[in-house]
Amino acid sequence: MIFKNSNDSLIKVARRSTKKLNIKDKQLRQVASTETVIRDTTVRIIPSKEKDFCVELKPNQLTTITVARKDSVFTHTMEILNHQDLFVYEDKVYRRRYKNWFQRLIHFDFKKKIK
Q1: Quick one: which of 36, 24, 35 has its CA closest to 87?
Q2: Cβ of 26: how many Cβ atoms within 10 Å?
Q3: Which one, out of 17, 43, 72, 99, has a CA that is 20 to 30 A from the CA of 89?
Q4: CB atoms within 10 A of CB 14
Q5: pLDDT 10s per residue in the chain (115 long)?
Q6: What secondary structure, in 3-state letters, does 42-107 show?
Q7: How far lies 7's CA from each of 2, 22, 33, 100, in Å?
Q8: Kind and range of the H or E run holding 20
Q9: Which pTM value belongs to this model?
């Protein structure tokens, strides 16, 4: 990548991901990143006299559900975060897949093509 010494957070995340996936800089052709945030709040009035409460649930790292009741107002807030990275890279592989190296030697087929 051209941006090896960049301080941009998105580029840092992409560099970390390529290192985890063992993608070399020469193979990498394109990187795309998408982040989606969905927030929804619902407010209802409940005609009963129960205690006030506020509960925050985190089923996973990217989802937060908050349920609160104050007086007769019931509030439900949901926040879903989604982050996706797409890496387009090319890899050279042998044209034909032989079971072992000796068969490749007999057929003298050592050429690789871009996958």
Answers
A1: 24
A2: 8
A3: 99
A4: 20
A5: 456 677 777 788 888 888 888 888 888 888 888 888 888 887 777 666 668 888 888 888 888 888 888 877 888 888 888 888 887 877 766 666 777 777 777 776 766 666 5
A6: EEEECCCCCCCEEEEEEEECCEEEEEEEECCEEEEEEEEEEEEEEEEECCEEECCCCCCHHHHHHH
A7: 13, 21, 17, 46
A8: helix 9-20
A9: 0.49
Neighbours of 110 (CB within 10 A): 10
Find the angle CA(79)-CA(53)-CA(80) to the nearest 5 degrees: 5
Measure Cα distances from 108 to 98, 102, 111, 113 in Å.
Answer: 11, 9, 9, 15
Distance CA 36, CA 42 (A): 20
Quote the tokens at residue 102: 């000796």
